[in-house]
Write a structure and sequence with these properties.
It is a single chain. Strands 1, 2, 3, 4, 5, 6 and 7 form a seven-stranded mixed sheet that branches. The protein has a single domain, classed as ph1033 like fold, CATH 3.10.590. The protein is α+β, with helices and mostly antiparallel strands and 182 residues long. The chain is globular, with a radius of gyration of 17 Å. Helix content is 30%, strand content 24%.
Amino acid sequence: MEYWKIAPGEHGFLWVEQRDANCIALGWSKVGDLKKYNSKEQLREEFRKCGYHSKPNQLWKFYKEVLKGDKVVASSGKLIFGIGTIVGDYEYNENLAYKHSKPVRWELTFWEPLNIEELQLSNEVKKKLSLNRTIVKLKEEEWREIEEILTKNDNPLKNLFNWEGCAELHKRSKKSLCFLVN
């Protein structure tokens, strides 16, 4: 089992889509389905043809190294959105904004993203989570630290999605829970 920080889009702008689709996904979609590439060199050539100025290292790592059973923290910039487990293999999903995806069982999500700077994480872990990279491999002890802090978080609204009707109640009191009645 490996541990990963993966950004659900720059500053997490695709978090809701990926959470609701039970996946984590990366961009660089113009290269198409990664299953058609036999090597990183082939993908690198396609990156050039598509006009990408970066190397395909992060996308290739996502494709080849992030595996079923691995743990993932969805984090971008200074924010953490959720943690989960990869539950399947790579898919090129035409229905997503970022099409390179892996299915995830989200085990812990939050009403609002958590600010890394406000959490009691070590400076090394904060720095690693804040790196301006799409995907970062974490050490097991770093994952344990993240998991421990996030599961202790005193947020009664964790694991609630954006339920219609809860937003106004949430504005009034972050300690209030909301139940929908038809």
